[in-house]
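Supplementary Methods S3. Complex input for the adenosine-5'-triphosphate-bound model.
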Amino acid sequence: MRDYAIAAIPGDGIGPEVVEAARAVLEECQRRYGFTLNYTDYDFSAELYRRTGRKVTEADMDEIGAHDAVLFGAMGLPEVRGPEGLELGAQVEMRAYFPLFASLRPVRLFDGVDGPLKTDHVDMLVIRETSEGMFAGLADHHEPSDEEASDRMTITRAGARRLIEVAFDQARTRRRRGTPGHVTLLHKSNALRSNVLLEKVFDEVAAEHPDLGSAKHYIDAGAMYMVLDPGRYDVVVTENIFGDIVSEVAAGLVGGLGVAPSADVSLDRGVFQPSHGSAPDIAGQGVANPTAMILSAAMMLDWLGGRHDDERCLRAAEGIQRAVEATLAAGVRGPDLGGTAGTAEVAEAIRASLPQVEVRA
Ligand code: ATP
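Predicted complex, serialized as structure tokens:
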């Protein structure tokens, strides 16, 4: 059985704190489930850029990309801006360079967490497109102006197709774990030409998967349903900026960013990071909830296990899910969820709750 090479990029703010917590849980998983992760640490951050002007280069990307997966904390600080006035973070560059085209953002309402809704059932995967859509023009030439500025929304047939295929694939994989096997497209084809194409491609791919259910909503109504009736959603797929927004709405339904993991993937690469950013307002206080990062690490193991047919990683990913469930059900919660447990306490509770397993040779 092979070992795995992991590029670890803790980044800024609470990034290093939550990555350290996740690595402690992963270390215990390695011991219990018998696999090996070999880390290379990278200190890329907005803070490094502020101190030294050092940005992530193409050579860095090549080196990072040679690993089996990337474990990423958070990068960017509000006051550190690049020449165009935008916040600095390697996420966008990595998406463009590798390129990663789908951001998988699962949300689940765990027992022990009070969501803002009456329902106690929220279990959906929001898939945000990340290579085109409303961010398609990021690298476009533009003349800086204080009078007019524009952005470009572009959707290609190829981009839409690979995204929607991932959505149906994910619905099928999730169904094995008891979810309904259903994909909903959120779009705006009544007003945006690009979304007419997105809807057309969705219909084509949906027709190729008659065993899975499908639905379509305009993004505005779909966002409302997310709050009024989240149980209708299993896999939700949408373009770049709609996904950016509704994935955080979805996170809000299950207790907020502290419990919302994510994975940016292509067909052969994966960057695993929490949905939250560097949260400079709480950095250095030991109160960041590490659960989102730990669940992102579980997504990494699930992805490695699936790609390499490695039962050890698949079982460890499942074990982390169970440990998070047990920890929250036992009332160990950070301040973001109304509790008092700090980063280290939550991480230790999750580590200690990993199921006892017999490691198969
Ligand atoms: P970005 O644009 O980089 O994603 P953001 O502007 O969405 O960042 P975050 O850094 O994600 O902002 O933080 C948003 C709010 O959520 C902040 O008040 C922050 O303290 C809180 N928050 C984010 N992550 C966590 C966490 N892991 N634990 C507790 N609170 C968090």
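The first strand starts at residue 4 and ends at 11. The chain has a mean pLDDT of 93.
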